[in-house]
Amino acid sequence: MILTMSFARLCRSLVRPLVAGAVVASCCAALLSGMALAQDTQVRVPNFWDPKAVHDRPAAIPDKIQFLATDDYPPFVFRDPQGRLTGFNVDLARALCQELGSSCSLRIKDFEVLLPALEEEKGDAIISGLSRGLPSTRSLNFTDDYLKLPARFVVPTDQIETFDEQKLADKTIAVETGSRYEAFVTRFWPEANVLSLESEAAAREAVRTGEADAHFGDGLSLSFWLPSVAAEGCCTFAGGPWLEEGYFDQGMAIVTRQSDPERAAALNYALRQLHQKGVYRELYLRYFPLSFY
Predict the structure, then answer these.
(1) For residues 13-36, b (16+ Cβ closer than 10 Å) or e, as one string?
(2) Given a cut of 90, is residue 130 above it in pLDDT?
(3) Measured at the alpha carbon of residue 113, what is the angle toward residues 288 and 81, in degrees to the nearest 5?
(4) pLDDT over threshold 50, residue 3
(5) Which residues contact 240 (CB under 8 A, 6 or more apart)?
(6) Angle at 288 between CA 283 and CA 293, to 5 degrees
(7) Residue 268 is inside which H or E element, if any?
(8) 118 and 66 in contact (C-beta within 8 Å)?
(9) HSE-up (13 A, CA, CB side) for residue 232
(10) If you count DSSP H runs as helices and E runs as strands, how many of each does the chain have, helices first?
(11) Model-wide pTM > 0.85
(12) What pLDDT digit, counting tens, does each position of 65-115 carry?
């Protein structure tokens, strides 16, 4: 399970069907660069680490870390129009190795063979959005989450001042049919009118056209849709973020073999250090200039 593949679908939805991979990458790069102008003046960079906790540098630091990933996973790992690997996870892996003083490499594999490659020691750590909930991953070591993926509301921009997420009686909320977002809205806002549509794109469009008062969905993909041409400047984030357990609490982490706890401990230490030193903030704003928090 890849937790954020919805962004890849978003990029593809903004260009013609059957486009080449380079065109998709170009689309993603354009969104990333263009959205720098749309960043809210009050930037929200998430913090998943206890600022008061003190963590000593581990005694065992690996000399090298070979990361495993798939390269069709924008904005985390993808190829730019020149075919070069880029993305949030690519730069995060590089920064982790620099913090630890370890040599670093990134090996690209198809998603289906990432776990076998790790088990066969063809790499040391997977940085590709693996879920903790999969039976095949329950015996592995996961680092702390380095990114969680909240749900968010989006509403028409001219309604932002009057929208109250605690008062949704008679409001029409567009959601994707069968999604966890639909389940959440149905359970926690039973007084709202739920408009269930066949796709995320259709639910977003319902807000843009005025068919719905708000859309509740994936904050990550919405952060790229809001400043896109497709959105036509219609909408903005409102309320949240929502990270409720059992719905939106699964985050992104790095996976190592069960027999390699030292490497996981070293990566955890480095993740905390990157946050404390401001490196994580820099990477987050580079790839998510419109924060989804």
Answers:
(1) bbeeeeeeeeebbbbbbebbeebe
(2) no
(3) 40
(4) no
(5) 150, 151, 152, 153, 165, 219
(6) 105
(7) helix 261-276
(8) no
(9) 8
(10) 9, 14
(11) no
(12) 999 999 988 899 999 999 999 999 999 999 999 999 999 999 999 999 999
* Closest of 197, 202, 198, 205 to residue 235, by C-alpha: 205
- How many angstroms separate the CA atoms of 247 and 240, rounded? 14
**Residue corresponding to tokens 């009050």:** 42
Half-sphere exposure of residue 188: CA atoms within 13 angstroms, side-chain side: 14
CB-based contacts of 83, cutoff 8 Å, min separation 6 = 22
Residue 284: other Cβ atoms inside 10 A? 21
Nearest of 214, 208, 258 to residue 237 by alpha carbon: 214
Is residue 197 scored above 60 in pLDDT?
Answer: yes
Residue of 260, 261, 277, 286 lying closest to 90 (CA atoms): 286
Asked if omega into 51 is within 30° of 0 (cis), the reply is no
**Euclidean distance between CA atoms 195 and 55, whole angstroms:** 47
Residue 150: asked if its preceding bond is cis (omega within 30°), the reply is: no
Residues 6+ apart with CB under 8 A from 249: 148, 243
| φ, ψ for residue 95, nearest 5 deg | -65, -35
Q: Is 112 or 33 the better-scoring residue by pLDDT?
A: 112
Contact 142, 254 (CB under 8 A): yes
DSSP classification of residue 58? P
- Whether 70 and 5 have beta carbons less than 8 Å apart is answered as no
Residue type, 44: R
Which pair of tokens denotes residue 59? 């005694």
The CA distance from 67 to 222, in Å, is 28
Output the CA torsion sign for 243, 247, 252, 253.
Answer: positive
If you count them, how many residues does the chain have? 293
201 by Cβ neighbours in 10 Å (0-12 / 13-18 / 19+) ranks as middle
